[in-house]
Write a structure and sequence with these properties.
It is a single chain. The protein contains four helices and three strands. The longest helix is centred in the N-terminal third of the chain and has 10 residues. Helix 3 links the parallel strand 2 and strand 3. By secondary structure, the chain is α/β, with parallel strands linked by helices. The protein has a three-stranded parallel sheet, with helices on one face.
Length: 78
């Protein structure tokens, strides 16, 4: 399905799950992750678990959190 930042693997995931890309949240800790999510038409969540900093990712992210432990709150589940 190709590599990031191309959207191939994300679009394949959406197809297998039977979901439109717009209903999927791409979570990533690099610009390549978030660029792939945007290219696939997904919303993007940047997490700061890699080497990238908030300023490195914020322009590509719909939301930014320190890690995925903040996902329930972001999704209104906490």
């Amino acid at each position: 399905h190709g590599g990031k930042p191309a959207p191939g693997m994300l679009l394949a995931f959406a197809r297998v799950c039977g979901l439109p890309p717009a209903q999927i949240l791409m979570v990533g800790d690099s610009r390549h992750d978030l660029e792939a999510g945007r290219a696939a038409g997904m919303r993007t969540l940047a997490v700061l678990t890699g080497v990238a900093t908030a300023p490195d990712l914020q322009d590509l992210a719909d939301a930014l959190r320190p890690d995925i432990g903040h996902l329930p709150e972001l999704l209104g589940l906490a």
